[in-house]
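Hi R.,

As promised on Friday, here is the backbone we talked about, encoded as structure tokens. Could you run it through your design pipeline when you get a chance and send me back a sequence?
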């Protein structure tokens, strides 16, 4: 009925997991630097959602930009 994984299948599984993690890491850092939660990088593995998220990153104002603007407004101006 059930067949256990042989050595080649285990190696392929390990390679897939490592490649997935390596591909996900840059997205974690991109979302973190933009001011979003880093776990949103996982959304980049979902088809069509990844396209929507790229457009959101490209065309919306990031939370870090909103924070920077509010800090610049609150700082006193030096002549």
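Update: got your reply. Pasting your designed sequence below so it's all in one thread:
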């Amino acid at each position: 009925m059930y067949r256990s994984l042989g050595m080649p299948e285990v190696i392929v599984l390990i390679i897939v997991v490592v490649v997935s993690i390596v591909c996900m890491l840059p997205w974690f850092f991109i979302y973190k630097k933009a001011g979003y939660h880093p776990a949103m990088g996982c959304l980049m593995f979902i088809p069509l959602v990844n396209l929507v998220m790229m457009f959101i990153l490209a065309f919306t104002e990031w939370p870090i930009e909103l924070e920077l603007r509010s800090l610049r407004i609150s700082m006193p101006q030096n002549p």
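One thing I noticed while checking it: The mean pLDDT is 87.

Thanks again,
M.
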